[in-house]
Inverse folding.
């Protein structure tokens, strides 16, 4: 079992990634080009807003637990290729969902079920981002 201090550290790491995802989505939305990406751009801008909200929730949780929310930002990725940008965003989302699933377990092992629920809500939105990006990339998960 981890300590509350370790949970705060992990949440701060998640926070750096939320900041980065928000910045990356905004930059990618301005760089995507071609008529087939018009609707995708709108979705990506929605994702950027969601990531901003996630960052606010995380800062509140970290402060509530007695920590200081970080201002550090995880490295961002850029590209001039539309599909590569979307894959970069998708990989961020896979990483985020994996991290939140771990954080939910960590919080609940400490008896912090209210925080676990807040993290579940974030994880659900991250999963929706994954679905949007997989659809945009034409990724089908059909089990024959």
């Amino acid at each position: 079992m981890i300590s509350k201090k370790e949970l705060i550290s992990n949440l701060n790491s998640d926070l750096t990634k939320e900041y980065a995802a928000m910045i990356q989505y905004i930059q990618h939305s301005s760089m995507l080009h071609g008529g087939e990406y018009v609707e995708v751009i709108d979705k990506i801008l929605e994702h950027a807003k969601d990531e901003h909200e996630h960052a606010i929730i995380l800062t509140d949780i970290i402060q509530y637990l007695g920590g200081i929310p970080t201002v550090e930002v995880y490295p961002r990725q850029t590209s001039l290729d539309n599909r590569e940008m979307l894959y970069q965003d998708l990989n961020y989302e896979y990483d985020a969902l994996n991290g939140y699933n771990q954080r939910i377990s960590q919080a609940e092992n400490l008896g912090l079920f209210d925080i676990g629920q807040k993290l579940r809500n974030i994880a659900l939105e991250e999963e929706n981002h994954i679905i949007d990006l997989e659809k945009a990339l034409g990724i089908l998960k059909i089990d024959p």
